[in-house]
Amino acid sequence: MIKFGTDGVRGIANEELTPEDAFLIGRTVAYILGGENADILIGKDTRISGGMLESALVSGICSVGANAHIAGVIPTPAIATLVKNKGMNAGIMISASHNPVEDNGIKIFNSDGYKLPDETENQIIDLIKNKTELPRPIGKNIGTYYLEDKDTKNLYTKFLKSTVPDADFTGLKVGIDCANGATYDVAPEIIKSLGADVYTIHNNPNGININKNCGSTYMDSIVSLVHEKKLDIGIAFDGDGDRCLVVDSLGNILCGDQIMSIFVNILKNENKLSKNTLVATVMSNIGLKQMGEKNNIEVIHTNVGDRYVLEKMLECGYNFGGEQSGHFIFLDYSTTGDGILTALQLLKIISNQKKPLYEINKYIKIHPQITVNAKVLQANKQNYMKVNSILDLINSINKKYKNSGRLMVRPSGTENIVRVTIEGEDIEEIEKDANKIKDIIEKELS
């Protein structure tokens, strides 16, 4: 059963997300977002299943008389940017982001480069579920497909450079972990072209090594590279390039909240932070809120997922937001999170201030926080609050941290896990309590 999560459709490729599913999604998306003669741009990350799903999407798109434009391996944010710049009716990215190679996903963007609202996703599901008869043109009215040339990726590179005009990163030693994913060629190329000395790892994708012990969800490799090469900064992307995390020259990993605190304060000081407001999610550390109070920056929290951050930004006219996990949205430049754009903005700050990153990272005090993942059955993911033994333990531990921390339990929008997050003063204590909740969830719901 096709189902949209917080970031498109996602599941184990060829089992939970099949070519048949992709065909139906391609047909329906093309029909709803343009119809006959519509132009749909398709990109993918480096997963072995990408070609299989791409072929099915193309067939579905062409079967309703629309045209498929194949961009090949390219970061997700490139699709969002190019759809608008090239005047396409929609864009589709085949990727499961930071997930392991077994998974894959389908992310959809409208003609303005925004992810689809719930209403449109529900319309797609309803048409598929009800087996609604869609047009099947014949003869000259059948759609066709086009292979995009190198100029398509060059257009994305040109856009990225336009966000840091006159940038010169000469003298900066930069490490990049491409996660064997969609940024493997464009990220090192663009940062090197702006003058930096670039040291790249995990940029040899083979279809099955994406996100494997590398990238923004496994920071050990980039930390080691920073130490080994004595670099000024290490940058780690995820598999599809819509997020990034960084390491300073001392080997300290900066979480998303620390990165956001740097950006919002710089933007505020330059009078470029709309309404002096940052949009983050409920997963952000309590230190982010305290940073805002200290620096006269309002911090607004949304549900987890960059789409909800974006919705709040658009609704209220804010121009910067992000997630602790490494998604950052610069709405003045882009309609979605873009890891390479984020890296360029941070490198510009380091270059302009002529200070090491560990000195720039001074705005926020991060309180001890631990997140553990309870593996559950897909059918049970939403049931953790319906089991008395789980609920009793959550309520008991929640009271414990009422005045000195925070407890959050939530199902993942993209994986078969329930995340347990606790903030408090004692790291050993919060880890112990988080694992208590994790263990009982797995016992009851696995």
Structure write-up:
Helices cover 37% and strands 21% of the residues. It has 446 residues and is of the alpha/beta class. A 7-stranded mixed beta sheet has the order 1-2-6-5-3-4-7, with helices on both faces. The longest helix has 19 residues, at 427-445. The mean pLDDT is 94.
Offer a few descriptive terms.
single chain; 446 residues; 21% strand; five-stranded mixed beta sheet
Explain the layout of strands and helices.
Blueprint: E1 4-5, E2 8-12, H1 19-32, E3 39-44, H2 50-63, E4 67-73, H3 76-85, E5 90-94, E6 103-110, H4 118-129, E7 145-147, H5 150-162, E8 173-177, H6 186-193, E9 197-201, H7 220-229, E10 233-237, E11 244-248, E12 253-254, H8 256-269, E13 277-281, H9 286-295, E14 298-302, H10 306-316, E15 320-322, E16 328-330, H11 339-353, H12 357-360, E17 369-375, H13 388-400, E18 406-411, E19 417-423, H14 427-445
Parallel strand pairs: 3-4, 3-5, 4-7, 8-9, 8-10, 13-14
Antiparallel strand pairs: 1-2, 2-6, 5-6, 10-11, 11-12, 15-16, 17-19, 18-19
Helix pairs in contact: 1-2, 1-4, 8-9, 13-14
Overview in brief:
With 446 residues, the chain is α/β, with parallel strands linked by helices. It is 37% helix and 21% strand. Helix 8 (256-269) packs parallel to helix 9 (286-295) and helix 13 (388-400) runs antiparallel to helix 14 (427-445).
Radius of gyration: 22 Å
Give the termini separation. Answer: 21 Å
The tally of helices reads: 14
Unreliable segments of 5+ consecutive residues: none
* Helix fraction bin: 25-40%
Mean model confidence by pLDDT: 94
Q: Main sheet, how many strands, which sense, barrel?
A: 7 strands, mixed
The counted number of beta strands is: 19
Order of neighbouring strands in the sheet with most strands: 1-2-6-5-3-4-7
Question: Per the principal axes of the C-alpha atoms, what is the gross shape?
Answer: globular
Q: Which class do the helix and strand fractions yield?
A: alpha/beta
Tell me the β content.
15-25%
